[in-house]
Here is the input.
Amino acid sequence: MSEQALSIPIIDFGPFIQGDPTARQQVAAQMREASSQWGFFYLANCGMPQASVSEAFQASKDFFALPDEIKQSVAWQNAQSNRGYVGVRRERLDPSKPGDLKEAFNAAPEDRDASAARNLWPADQPEFREHVETFLSDCITTADRILEAFAVALDQPDNFFVNAHDLHHHTLRLLHYPPLPEGFIAEQGESRAGAHTDYGSITLLFQDDAGGLEVCTRQGEWVQATPIPGTVVINTGDLMHRWTNHVFCSTPHRVNVPKAAMHRHRYSIAFFCHPNKNANIECIDSCTDASNPVRYPPISAGEHLLQRLNATY
Here is the structure.
């Protein structure tokens, strides 16, 4: 396979935001192709404020540098709330492997659903909360634009996906992969994040420059998703895979430990975009024909998420 064929696509989203109908269709077509062939692509000029991204990364570094007792005071409790701090090895994304060599902090929007669980904020850290909430808001704006483009790509009304996500049942996850000690030897397949697919509709992933993210191609080869400054990595998740009847694919990915970076801290931030929990996920009419019959019965988005989370922890 050629090197070009193994290059995760890079898409300029600027023309879609600017609004020319022809340009919007062209960008949406590129996103459809990338989501069908890869389930992953880099998005440039997506509209995320750089200051917000920088402040979120600094807030993440400051949080993970706190003493363990402070982090444990806001520990993750259950899949229903899915908020708070997750310690190193607490999560096992690949059930056949040991716990992942990472720690995380989950937060979620609180603006649309009064019945939802509340975020768990560490005491005496007001700037941390402020920066995370600002970043959350910016991610929602960006995700809605991307969802609109996906609707255009599938010949649906512009607001088809946005309306199904309007309760903001998303999850923001700050991630820290600690440096590994000198002489570290992985035990029984240990990694920073085991091979997995994401659970929801789309994910926005912001990386630092440490590297380590790998994506599995349709041919079963693992390709590095090297950080590219000024871009956001977008991937489609299991619910989008199901919703589109496999027109868009949910691709396995993992975080390995590059030898050159094993003694470095690695930080990333993932925004997991999830439909409203009561949204009925059933095959989109433009994603089925005689050669691609409907593959799945309808399921609620909330039921699907709980099944996946309970299998992970």
Remarks:
- Confidence is low (pLDDT under 50) at residues 1-5.
- The chain has one domain: 9-312.
- The domain at 9-312 is CATH 2.60.120.330 (Jelly Rolls).
- The CA atoms of residues 36 and 248 lie 4 Å apart.
